[in-house]
Amino acid sequence: MKAVIGVVLLGVVLPALSKECAQLYEENGLSPNFNETIAHAIHSLTLNELRKFNPLAEELNGVPVVNPRLNDPTETERVIPHAPEEPINKNFVSEAMNIIDSVMSQVGQSGDQFGTNWPIVARIVHKFHMKDTWAKIKEEFDLMKQPAKDLCVCLKDTKENGIFQAVDWVARQYRTAPLLTLLNKPLPKLKDAKSWEVWRARLVQYYDSQAITDAATYLSCVLNHIS
Prior knowledge:
Largest sheet: 3 strands, mixed
Strand order of the largest sheet: 1-4-5
Number of strands: 5
Order of helices and strands: EHHHEEHHHHHEEHH
Oligomer: single chain
């Protein structure tokens, strides 16, 4: 098994989709593997980031994410049902430097989400890759019409449509896998420009327009009813 910085899910056992929901997904342009693309987009979401989409996003937001304290021995849940607020250190002036401070401050702590398998540079790249992905999703989110209510009922039922299981797959990789992969291929150690070329070529594939649409549709269902 190999740890993932992005998500290509193989062997995830999914519940059968209801005929009504399956038809709605197809009619509204979601991809056949929407549960995987959405899981990649949300697996490390925080309430802080949700409030960039909608400032009124709530603590009980219904967005399942990998438990930020995944490797704390007292934690029993790999996936938690609501994206939590992330405490960000305020020791520096810029958001970027405070995020790096927060990432570094978790390394080696009992609640460290990534355990011992993730090199420090990979942690920082993952953090900013996800923030960049969310920024891309928000561009489409801001232009999107509110999805139909019946579609949103289906999309928000994450245990029935496979989104929850796909997020759990990510959590299990974080906890058990010894190596980093991306798009199901091993990643070189990130140490120079040549290795970064490999990482960059893989990362940009997550900006696929269909994957972005899947995620924007889901988040629109979750957030646009809040007022």
